[in-house]
Amino acid sequence: MKAKEFKLAMVQMLVKGGDKQSNIQHAVELINEASGNGAQVVLLPECMDLGWTHPTSLTEAEEIPDGSVCQALMQAAKENSVYVCSGLTEKDGETIYNAAVIIDKNGNVLCKQR
What is the pLDDT of residues 19-38, one digit of tens each? Predict the structure, then answer.
């Protein structure tokens, strides 16, 4: 049986510590670009939303999948019909996690890992 081939984009982006909106916008632009170049899977950096070591990760981390960052990534995955894997800072109750999500091409979160 022949292995299935696919095109994967490993995205390198400067994460601006604490600048969630700028990071979301940049990530969506890069997902669009990768998709336009034929990628079927797009990998984004660890904690691309706030930066793990930035102090705002303690105050602005969001729930997955309901937070604005995850929702924006879900929408970009759906609009581009690509899988997206991204690192995010996650808030669950009073605890903050360095998490990763995999989003399918329909915009659904398939899994989350902390």
Answer: 999 999 999 999 999 999 99
Residue pair 17/53 in contact by the 8 Å Cβ criterion: yes
Domains of the chain, start order: 8-113 (3.60.110.10)
CB 69 within 8 A of CB 20: yes
Using alpha carbons, select from 25, 114, 32 the residue that is nearest to residue 72: 25
Predicted pLDDT of residue 14: 96
Which residues 6+ apart lie within 8 Å of 25 measured at CB? none
Rounded CA separation 72/9 (Å): 18
Cα separation of the two ends of the chain: 34
Per-residue pLDDT tens digits for 42-80? 999 999 999 999 999 999 999 999 999 999 999 999 999
